[in-house]
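Usage example:
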Amino acid sequence: MPKRNIIIEPDPILRKKSKLIETVNSELKILMDDMLETMYEAPGIGLAAVQIGILKRVIVIDISKEPEKKSPLFLVNPTITYKSKDTSIYEEGCLSLPGYFAEIERPAECHLDYLDYHGKKQELKAKGLLATCIQHELDHLNGILFIDYLSKLKKDMIIKKLKKQKNNLNKIVI
Ligand code: GNR
Ligand code: NI
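Running the assembly step on the lines above writes:
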């Protein structure tokens, strides 16, 4: 199972809306396995398929810490059915925005419906870091990045610096 390349902002694909998955078949399971491996190697606590260039509504998450047992979560076609009024703030990072972190306020709790790795309908009630991570990943499926919640000045500055980094890398490759 090969590790896949993570797409970095700015890239127009990150702004596209991912499409609903029709069936959880073996092809999708291979994709989910690859996503999990890519996320663990990065390392990150979540990954949306669009971040490896695939516009499908599938997410992998694992918020367990190093000494703990791994506890991967596969979310196919997730829909949020409830968001709490009360909010919490976490410092977020994103594998598509390497090196940038910002405190983002989101609903503290959310409930969702989704299909699991086996295509079975499931429900989940999340709070804390898991709730934040789920909302961050769901945003990816809708073409939204956490920098979209920052001031235009900060957002533009981050995009400009990432663009510059990409240009410099291209120069080294040549
Ligand atoms: O690795 C990640 N850490 C993280 C921290 C706080 C809130 C959300 C995240 S998700 C991020 C990986 C990623 O980019 N997922 O899309
Ligand atoms: Ni992200």
